[in-house]
């Protein structure tokens, strides 16, 4: 593996592990043990590829960039309660119109509940 891809891979993995909060570019160098010149070039390549976003921010009296992954990953928690996972009608799913997933009453109810939960979470307090 070429050295530059190794650095890009380490940077991308570190940014993804930081989740939605991202990581400051100035802190990234310490985490991956890279010099800022090599790291900056790798960051620019990742941004150009559309894999990360650079957000200019004032941190501890200095301007730096917060680096955030553009690709969001869901956790297993988001699908643990999906009705299909433990459905007693699963063997029949797709056999009749009632059990076709997009027409299933259980799936429809689950989607509506998830949607309502997200709407409630987004409402200002």
Instruction: Give the name of the CATH architecture of the largest domain.
Output: Orthogonal Bundle
Number of domains: 2
CATH level 1 class label of the largest domain:
Mainly Alpha
Q: What fraction, in percent, of the residue positions are helical? A: 40-55%
Radius of gyration: 21 Å
How many runs of DSSP E, i.e. beta strands? 3
CATH homologous superfamily caption of the largest domain: Winged helix-like DNA-binding domain superfamily/Winged helix DNA-binding domain
Helix/strand class: alpha+beta
Low-pLDDT ranges: none
How many helices does DSSP assign? 4
Distance between the termini: 50 Å
Instruction: Give the strand content.
Output: 5-15%
SSE succession: HEHHEEH
Overall morphology: elongated
| Biggest pleated-sheet summary | 3 strands, antiparallel
Order of strands, widest sheet: 1-3-2
| CATH topology-level name of the largest domain | Arc Repressor Mutant, subunit A
Mean pLDDT over the full residue set: 81
